[in-house]
Amino acid sequence: MDAAPGPPHSPCTLRREKSGGTGGHSPASSLYFRFSIRFVNAFSVILLDLLPAKNGEEATMQFLLELVGILTNYVRKTFDRSTKVLDFHHPHQLLEGMEGFNLELSDQPESLEQILVDCRDTLKYGVRTGHPRFFNQLSTGLDIIGLAGEWLTSTANTNMFTYEIAPVFVLMEQLTLKKMREMIGWPSGEGDGIFSPGGAISNMYSVMIARYKYFPEVKTKGMSAAPRLVLFTSEHSHYSIKKAGAALGFGSENVVLLSTDERGRVIPADLEAKILDVKQKGYHPLFVNATAGSTVYGAFDPINEIADIYGAWGGGLLMSRKHRHKFSGVERANSVTWNPHKMMGVPLQCSAILVREKGILAGCNSMCAGYLFQPDKQYDVSYDTGDKAIQCGRHVDIFKFWLMWKAKGTIGFEQHIDKCLDLSQYLYDKIRNRQGYEMVFQGVPQHTNVCFWYIPPSLRGLEHNSEEYREKLHKVAPKIKAMMMESGTTMVGYQPQGQKVNFFRMVVSNPAALQSDIDFLIDEIERLGHDL
Amino acid sequence: MDAAPGPPHSPCTLRREKSGGTGGHSPASSLYFRFSIRFVNAFSVILLDLLPAKNGEEATMQFLLELVGILTNYVRKTFDRSTKVLDFHHPHQLLEGMEGFNLELSDQPESLEQILVDCRDTLKYGVRTGHPRFFNQLSTGLDIIGLAGEWLTSTANTNMFTYEIAPVFVLMEQLTLKKMREMIGWPSGEGDGIFSPGGAISNMYSVMIARYKYFPEVKTKGMSAAPRLVLFTSEHSHYSIKKAGAALGFGSENVVLLSTDERGRVIPADLEAKILDVKQKGYHPLFVNATAGSTVYGAFDPINEIADIYGAWGGGLLMSRKHRHKFSGVERANSVTWNPHKMMGVPLQCSAILVREKGILAGCNSMCAGYLFQPDKQYDVSYDTGDKAIQCGRHVDIFKFWLMWKAKGTIGFEQHIDKCLDLSQYLYDKIRNRQGYEMVFQGVPQHTNVCFWYIPPSLRGLEHNSEEYREKLHKVAPKIKAMMMESGTTMVGYQPQGQKVNFFRMVVSNPAALQSDIDFLIDEIERLGHDL
Question: Where is the composition biased (Pro residues) (chains A, B) (predicted)?
Fold first, then answer.
């Protein structure tokens, strides 16, 4: 796949189709499909002639358009089911160099021609995460509007710390955060928030905010100014809560894991008992995390008792009138993590931490760097939001999300989410009584996560509680996954969970996926796993 | 500037110039310059016809190419000195809506035509950070290869946590980090490292690593398992060290600020005295941060006594044979923060934390999430590097940097850095004896930072030590800066520092800047400030 139309060093023909003089109404696109990475030889030596070089405009435009030819070709293939999801190679193979694709860096520059070949090869040996049959991660799909947003963001190449150099993006962030708070249900969308480099950092913020609210002196005096503080989260929750506990000086042992029911939802009575236990020991229960859409099972914890919410994976369901009841009680949380880069299909990275109390983010994090946040600017400096971040420079993550929201409307996100949940229901209905399948938990999934074992014919006669069966079954998913990757046809995740041996975790967030892709996945599992 | 060639709702003419049948060798670029955002009406309603819709290819390609027309137009103008750096508007003006540019989000989708208008307007009301006369930040410039790298990265839209879904990028990161460690001078480039979302997070890593090295039990038991730990850093250092101290549970009061000499360099004797003082109090000195290129003065601390290095701004100088002596002793550090997105002109975000001791990053941060880092994969899972991050999902920041390194070679970065330092020397020579200027510190700058006051004629007769003079001078830089932004001609930063009233901090990292742009800046300061 992805073969170049000619050897990289062939002389240029920047091929164009004649448009036939039909004026403006003929399809422009056919013209561009034909771009290849063949160049005039003269072009291949002129990195130094790109902008900002004098008269560098033409070479720059030509280079960028050749690149866009490579990228749009990749986009087309991404959605083409006849292409593979990946062309797998082991690390040592790529490190040794593949047909002129050499990863090593050197002192001397390469030609622009080679740079474009490098770009093509980088895509060729990567993974098409937008392919309709890529189900491997919570973040899948390639949204064209989101992609456009990212291209623009990198062209603008600015920084969120001050209004001064990111006026439009700063305002977009404020408006979007307000809209998200309205969907959470906080009165008039009041509160605060910020986009962070991912759900783990957003969760770190939520823990910091809770600590600052009850023990503000920790900011200046350190953890010794507080009693022993304890965090609570589901044994099924994302590992980032534990990471935050370790990083922020609580200690991972002070992150207490809550027991869950068969579906992976926190048992409220267990939370109550563990809080009591912690209190009796003289420690201070600080923070309870509820998970709205757990990573593996897609479980929604019962929120109504709980103070802080981690809904990175499930957050998008707030946009669905059909499914938002799963968030019942979310408006009682003090903070919410919501990752539009997962269920909502926004390109990576796009994660928000939303906070009910205005001003607490700044209180918690500000250090008032005079060189960045001068109070004597000519505009309203309350729009300089950088000091409430734990970062200094901050990438513009808002624009692609804002643009997608504009293009889809709230209603478009809702349709996407309802469709993904319908597809996972389709998968669930298809396999729950199918021969050779066993569900990891019973009942309709709460999210798009469908967790199941595929049991090859050779295992079906064995006693299911035997050690032999468990050992053999544990190896099935890794073997099928390895064959999937080698053949490049589809990708889906697997893992063990507690006492449960390796099972497949199927998730749907890819807007390109259809029922036929679900059928394909099941056929593929059976094709590859039948003789194990 | 940036006016659309026609009203947004005019009927389409996708204008093309006839190429005159010259085959492949005529300049392709002229064809594309002419793209406008005018469409066929039919195109303006078909968001739902973009990919992944059936037969969505053509509409998708057309949409993306229209967008590229807007972006390349912006790129061209960015380098055009006859355009403004920015078109300033106050927050309330942008919020009220500018000529059809409405930031509010709604339930219903917008047409693709409007989406493209939104894209154009987003750029129009933003700041051209790549403009040759934009000197406002440490990160300036628009590197075309870096831009290409970002466009590709967003098209690939994947995640650094596993080799499985980012094979090429994971290897590029490893090779590049090794190369950077070689430049630091660690034997054979051994050690560890990771790209993080910015210098502040990289510095947070460095503090966490130091804590883990000497008090590993803090990871599980929290800060109470260690004595009172103290961090040391220059009073001129970046505020992120203090932020890290607050966030990680040390407390900002346990971040001791070191006195500096007149040039902003840490005084080693002061470090020694303060370490002794801390020890006498029974606390534990954990971490000393040396700054290589301070934010305001560009000062290089004397490194040879010091354990951990923050060289986010100055890191690029390691690539210059002429200037790397300023890093003398850096190889003795345990960790180094190096931000290629600053001096080296890599698009935001691109920051690395480099560590001398192999395995310590993983030791410090790993939580072994089974669903992500399965040990039973078919490839060498030592390439699954995600668990050593404090993040889970991690944006691909490496590719643009790798691609720039390929295209420039080490030698190209060196030339860029030497050129920037030459330009700042040019500025220094120009103003140090010029009437109306006073340097904030004497002597040739160590980095590209040139810090100076402009003194309008009305102040020149006043007693320099008088309160009146200080008060008046303090207002000069903000006033000039405000006028600069209103007129949109150039941008440069200012700030106070300690007892010193507001002064300009000029920095050069923009590869597009020439001596004439330095001249322009000085002329502009005098034009705007003469009558103050």
Answer: 1-10
Tell me how long chain B is.
532
Contacts of residue B434, defined as CB under 8 A and 6 or more positions apart, other chains included, come to B522
Which candidate from B65, B127, B155 shows the least CB-CB separation from A32? B65
Interface contact A65-B72, CB threshold 8 A: yes
Average pLDDT for B490-499:
95
Which 8-state DSSP code applies to residue A266? B
A384 has pLDDT over 80 = yes
Rg of chain B on CA atoms, in Å: 26
Alpha helices (H) in A136-239, listed in sequence order: 144-156, 167-184, 199-214, 218-221
What is d(CA B300, CA B306) in angstroms, rounded to the nearest whole number?
Answer: 12
**Tens digits of per-residue pLDDT, B361-395?**
999 999 887 777 889 999 999 999 889 999 999 99
Q: 3-state secondary structure string, B300-322?
A: ECCCCCCCEEECCCCHHHHHCCC
Q: Provide the 3-class DSSP secondary structure of residue B334.
A: coil
The mean pLDDT value for A76-90 works out to 97
Closest CA to B135 of B510, B478, B422: B510
The complex's ipTM?
Answer: 0.92
Q: B354 forms bridges with which residues in the sheet? A: B193, B336
Residue B47's pLDDT band, with cuts at 50, 70 and 90, is: low
Tell me the two tokens of residue B420. Answer: 């920037």
Q: Are B164 and B384 in contact (CB under 8 A)?
A: yes
For each of the domains in chain A, give its residue range(s) and CATH number, in order of start. Answer: 23-128 (3.90.1150.170), 411-529 (3.90.1150.170)
Contact B367 A204 (CB under 8 A): no
User: φ, ψ for residue A78 (rounded to 5)?
Assistant: -55, -35
- A435 class by beta-carbon count within 10 Å (0-12 exposed, 13-18 middle, 19+ buried): exposed
φ and ψ at residue A324, rounded to 5 degrees: -70, -15
CA distances from A445 to A2, A88, A448 (A): 38, 32, 7
Nearest-CA distance B201 → chain A (Å): 6
Residue partners of B176: CB distance under 8 A and separation at least 6:
A105, B398, B401, B402, B405
User: Whole-angstrom Cα distance, residue B498 to residue B232?
Assistant: 18
pLDDT score at A307:
66
**Spatial distance between the Cα atoms of A50 and A314, rounded to a whole number of angstroms:** 45
Among chain B residues, the shortest Cα distance to A296 is held by B371
Q: How far apart are CA B235 and CA B259, in angstroms?
A: 6
**Contact map slice: A 92-111 vs B, CB within 8 A:** 92, 94-95, 103-110
Strands across the sheet with B284-291, in order?
B192-196, B351-355, B335-338, B308-310, B284-291, B229-234, B255-258
Is the separation of the CB atoms in A308 and A353 below 8 Å?
no
Tokens 């300023």: give the residue: B326
Which range scores top for mean pLDDT: A440-444, B31-35, B148-152? B148-152
Three-state secondary-structure class, residue A309: strand
- Please answer yes or no on whether A242 and B110 come within 8 Å at the CB atom: no
DSSP state of A24: G
Q: Is B467 exposed, middle or buried (0-12, 13-18, 19+ CB in 10 A)?
A: exposed
Beta bridge partners of B454: B437
- 3-state helix/strand/coil string of A426-490: HHHHHHCCCCCEEECCCCCCCCCCEEEEECCHHHHCCCCCCHHHHHHHHHHHHHHHHHHHHHCCC
Interfacial B residues in 5-64 facing A (CB < 8 Å): 12-16, 19, 23-25, 27-30, 32-33, 38, 40, 47, 50-52, 56-64
pLDDT in tens, B277-304: 999 999 999 999 999 999 999 999 998 8
Euclidean distance between CA atoms B255 and B60, whole angstroms: 53
- Under a CB-based contact definition with an 8 Å cutoff, are residues A351 and B197 in contact? no
